[in-house]
Each structure stands twice: as structure tokens, then as C-alpha cells.
Amino acid sequence: MADFVGLDIGTSTIKGVQVKNRTLLSYHQMASPGVSMASEDAADLKRLADSLRSFFAEGRFRTSDVVASVPESQVFARVISLPQMGEAEITSTVQNEAQQYVPMPLDQVSFDHEILGPSELEPGKVDVLLVAVPKALTNKYLQVLRDAGLNLISLETETIAIARSIIGESKSAVMVASIGASTTDIAVFSGGALRFTRSIATGGQALERALSQSFNLAPGQAAEYIRTYGLEEKLEGKVMGAIKPVFDIIVEELKRTQVFFSSRSPRPLERLILVGGTANLPGVLVYLADSLGLEVARGNPWETIAIPTNFPREPLEEIAPSFAVAAGLALKEF
User: Looking at the whole model, is its pTM more than 0.85?
Assistant: First the structure.
């Protein structure tokens, strides 16, 4: 297995994981500078490179090679169903018809596909995952990581990384919600393959803004109140009452996904797995279970990685949902 760090560059935190033979070697997280890799401001990208340089110095990783994630909101990813045909024919069909699926000129994107297998939603067809990343974004990753003294081996979407660390070899139908700072990515896996994916522009920062506006709180205060009270009926339910309308935007998208998949697949949707920092909100698992009528669990990537005794288990369990992407990247095989 190649020696590299799985690097998750989020808008609120940067996280990294290094494993060897599926055993944890190191992990680290720190606050990000609050800028996106998609920024057009050279000063923003320099700040990000400086932060990554500090991150690797603090994390004491044993290599500067990285596999990094690209947020679903910044790429085009879609599962399409094609008539049954050979692998070469599928490749030819995808290349010939790619423009109708990708909302950008093909000469401006890096385009790839993966054959997922027989379709569960359209019997008699085969599912194919299409992924297109803007070349301008890819070039920014290369430049920023190079400026940080790092070597980019590969880019991968967050959903594929999460599948590796959270879903594993499971064949059951599972919905995954990754609630980040600025977006929520929703995916359904069934039969060991990705069947549906989408991203919405609502995340933890929107919850903080809602609470800040309701009670005239500073952003840091709002974040602390949300971490403490979340979706529980404490403090007279004031925090829950303020953030519930925004959180319900996420819930409605989960319901739509649930209805879409359940109406088309013979395999019942069994549960929802929550990853990202919001998975730790008090009351969130119960609230989602009641809203969706599904079993809801926090994703734990450490279940697929051996943890040496020199790593304290309790802190790792606490941050587990936030490390689903970085751990999944670290488990990538070449």
C-alpha cells in the first residue's frame, strides 16, 4: 500500500489521517483559514497553503504525499443508467454522450466514469457513476498543495471516500448524510455501490447564522450554544426553536431522497448514517429518527481501522464522524 496522508480540506477544519496496513499511524485536525479552494483570490489560496504547511508540521505525518478530497458541491457527480452492454461499449457511450450529462464544456473538465454494476432502480440496465471536476479547480489543488510543500497523488470526491470508511462491504441500502460547515451531501448506497448522490447549500454555518440572528449572538457564541443544546428541549427549547427551521431544510431533502429511492428500489432503505461535525449535536439522532422513521447512527470510520493502544480511544470516538472523509481517503488502495 502506498504511503500517503488522506487530506480533507474543509471550510471550517482541515483533517488528515495516515494509516498503514489498515492501522492508524497518525491523525490531526486544526481550524482552516475559512477560505475555499474554489476562491479566485490569490491571497486566499496563499493563506490556505500556509495553513496546510502548518498543519503538516503540527501533525507530524511521515510523508508529504497526499490524497485529497473534493467537495461534492464543487464537482459534478451523477449516477446514470445505461442499457446492458460490454465495458468497452459503456466507455464509448459515456464518452460520446458525456456533454448531455456534464453542465460544462468537456474541454474545461477532467472527466471520468466508474461502472457500478446492474442497476437496482432500473432493472435490466447498468449503473455508471460520472464524475467531472473543473480543470481550473484541479489546478488550484495542485498549486496550493505544491506551495505547501506537499505532493498530490490523487483527488477523490468526498462521497467515495466516505463509502470506503463507513459503508465498506455492506450490501444493505443505506443513506448517508454528510453535514459540513456550508453544505450537506446526501448519498444512497445499495448492493455495495453508490446509487444516488446530491448536495445542498445548507450546513452547520446556516444553523449558527439562524441562532445568531434570533438572539443577537456572536458567531462563536452561537456555535457553542448549538454544540451544547442542539435539537434538545433544553433552555426552554429556545436553541432548538431557532435552528429547527434551517435544519428542517436538510430533513426535507433527506425525505425526498428516501421517497425517491424507496419508490424505485426492491431493496428497503434500512438506515441513515450521519457524518460530519453536526452528527455530534445533542438530540440530532433522535430528531432524525422520528422525522424519517429510520434507524439513525453516527458514522465511525475507526471501526474499519486498527487503533494502537497509544491512541486514546475516547477522543477518537468523539471526533469519529468528522473524520469519515479523511479516513476514507487514507484507506484508498492503488
Answer: yes
